[in-house]
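User: Fold both of these, please.

Assistant: Here is the first one.
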Amino acid sequence: MSATARRYLELCKPKVVLLIVFTAVVGMFLAVPGWPPFSALLAGTAGIALAAASAAAINHLLDQRIDAVMARTRNRPLPRGQLGVNQVLVFAAALGVLSMALLIVWVNTLTAVLTFLSLIGYAIVYTVWLKRATPQNIVIGGAAGAAPPVLGWTAVTGSVDHNALILFLIIYVWTPPHFWALAIHRRQDYAAVDIPMLPVTHGVHFTRWHIFFYTILLVLVTTLPYLTGMSSLLYLAGTTVLNLGFLWYAFRLLRENDERLPMQTFGYSIIYLMVLFAFLLTDHYLQMLLR
């Protein structure tokens, strides 16, 4: 891969897009009793991935000033002058247009509309306004990041089901403890660019308590697939183990001042979400085999 191609790939935030696509694909498989229609699976996955990449590129573009200051982001292509504003703008627009074309032509209009709203929600509403307006930015803006399983669901069914909303709720409640752990670690960066993240405006101790409370709420929310009959005991057993792990990290954050712990919690939260959705998927098809 050429150096230029790697820079454009970096604009897409591939690790974030991978997590988005994974949860969207799981949503597709959970929406049907068998195998999702191949056209919807292929075009839906591609369209959602391209929209996520477009939103990431727009985020790079709009945040280039603060990215140049923050240690975590100062080596991104725009702050380093490796790509120009017009290049990134054209790239983001091309990805967005291609995404919408795929979803409208080969999937359905509802998925295209919801994907577009999610793109705008993250790339514009969160990045331009919420991120700089309130320490609850990640709570309010988390709705855009929680949309992928709903998008996957609508891609194969053409409608929004209550089970799809449960998947949305799981990611929505997961997002604050996930991101606040990172924000604690990077609080000096956020303070330097006047971004009102919770650890900056209310302190680390206050943020740790919020992580703990949201983790308890997450434990409750992640039982909903079992309580509603969407999943069986296999999922419940697996998610219980995952929840105990998350609670352990959240409790340690309250009791310990180890500077490595926030990033360890952040890393665990990513594994947590991926494995939880893997449990949902495994449980779904195991139930089919046992019927």
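And the second sequence with its predicted structure:
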Amino acid sequence: MILINLLPHREAARKRKREAFYATLGLSALAGGVISGAIFLWYAAQISDQQAKNTVLSSEIKRLEGQIKDIASLQQEIAGLRARQQAVEDLQADRNMPVYLLNELVSQLPDGVYITSLKQDNQSVSLLGVAQSNERVSELLRNLGNNSPWLTRPELVEIVAGTVALSPRDQRRVANFNIRVRLMRASEAQKAAAPAGAASAPAAAAPAKT
């Protein structure tokens, strides 16, 4: 017996393929949605974690900025205290500056040089005097510039030839001079003396060559 299938089997096959395609498409869309949701949640968690870290960092930065401001204000206060301390020490040392000046002038004046006037303005000292010759004035300048720990930078302002009457018949030619010199403070003299002492110590400690 011959069996003949008169049903539309082609349409039924196409329908089954179409239904399988839609099912696969639905499953793919569902899987894509699940994966996308998981990725979104992961990124959201990462962003939330980074935002929390940023908040902590911002608070730490603000705290450190406050500490830096406090340190800067403390440094300014320390600098102000040191400046006031130095000013007080300079004032105390300046009280003895006239004594140092007179002692140095007595020790540095060569023979034949006489001081007739002395004027001090802060650390600048003007010396007016009489010398037997120009060479005596040069010697005084060398002494003030090289041999005194308290006097520095001597400057010859003026030198004028003159005469001095020792008696009615005895007149001597002299040199009237005007010298300006700087009187150092105690702190400056100590700083200037420290390198000189350090330089002389190795020379004294070095053994003599035979």
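The radius of gyration is 49 Å.
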